[in-house]
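Quick start: read one record
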Amino acid sequence: MSSVRVLVGTRKGAFIFTSDFKRENWDIKGPFFAGLEIYHIKGSSVDPQRIYASQASDWFGQVNHRSSDGGLSWETIGNQFDYVGEVGTHQDFSGDQIPWKFRRIWAFEPSPTEKDTVFAGAEDAALFKSTDGGMTWQELPGLRKIHSNMWMPGAGGMGLHTILINPKNPDQIFVAISAAGVFRTNDGGQTWSGINHGLKSEYELPNPEAEVGHCVHSIAMHPSNPNVLFMQKHWDVMRSDNAGDDWYEVSDNLPSDFGFPIAIHAHEPETIYVIPIKSDLEHYPPEGKLRVYRSRTGGYGWEELSKGLPQKDCYVNILRSALAVDTLDSCGVYFGTTGGQLYVSPDSGETWQTVAQNLPAVLSVEVQVLL
C-alpha cells in the first residue's frame, strides 16, 4: 500500500510516522532506542526498507543501527571509525591546536545508486564510507588535507553534518562542516577543494573572507539542477549557481537571516524553505511567532507561511536536520522542533498540521515515499 514514512530522531529515541498520501492521519511507532540520543535516522532511496540510525551518548558512546524491514527490527552495525594516517590537530575554541578525536556520527547519506554503500559524517569532522551496509567504515582522508588545522568547532561541536551526492554524477559529493565551511570532491572522495568563495563571517573570523573556518549550518541541492546550491549559514542565506565555486546572499526580506535548516521543493528547483531564528544567542523565532518562509524565486523575495503554526509565545528552535520535503505531486513539507512538536504541510507550506506535540526534542526529520 502506498504511504509516506517520516523518520524522526530525538534526544530520547527514534520515532516512525506513517500515513497515506493524504497525510491527514498518522500512525506512530516508537520510541526505538528509548532514552538514547538518535542524532540522525535516514533511509535508502535504493532500498527504502534499509534505514540507518546514529545513536550517541556519554555513557554508551557511538552505536550505529540498521533496519532491513522499514524500522520494525534493528541490528547493531559497525562502530569502528579510525582516522587515516597521522591524526594531526585542529583548533579548539581558544585557538589552541588539539588532536583529532572521534566523538559521534552526525549524518548518514546512503548512495543513490548502490544499496550497500553509505556515507557517514563524523565529529571531529571527517567523512567515512562503507560498501558493506555499514558493517565496516573507511575514512576518505583527502578531505582533512584542506587546511584542517584551521578548522574549529561551532557551538554544537565540529561535525560534518551535511552530505549531498550529485544524482547525475555520484562521484561529485558536497559536504558541510561546522565550523569549517563547504567542500567538494569530483572523484568520489579522493581529492577535495574548499568552495567558500563569497562567504563572509564578520563576527566569527579574524579574516571574515577566510578560505576555511565559516560556520555553515546546512546546504541543499535539487536533483534536477545540481549546479545550484542553497545554504543557511550562521547569518545569511546564500546561493551558488556554479556548484559552489561562488556564493552570494539571497536573504532579501527575511525577518532574520539566522537559522539552521534549508530545503528545496521537490518539483520546483527555485522554491526554497527556511525557518528564521532570532539570533545566534536567542535560538527562537522572531517575535515568538513560528513561521516558515518560502521563496519561489530562488531567494529573491520571501513570503511568510504560518497558517496552523503558533503565532504567540513560541520559543522553540528548529535544528539543521529537522526540515524535510517529500516527493508527492503536492509536495509535503515537514519539520520538528526542540519543544517536541512535529508539523506537516501537505500543500507545499500553505497550511500546517500538528502531527505530534509531546515528543522529546527533535534532532532530525527525514521523509520516504513508499509506492
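The mean pLDDT is 96.
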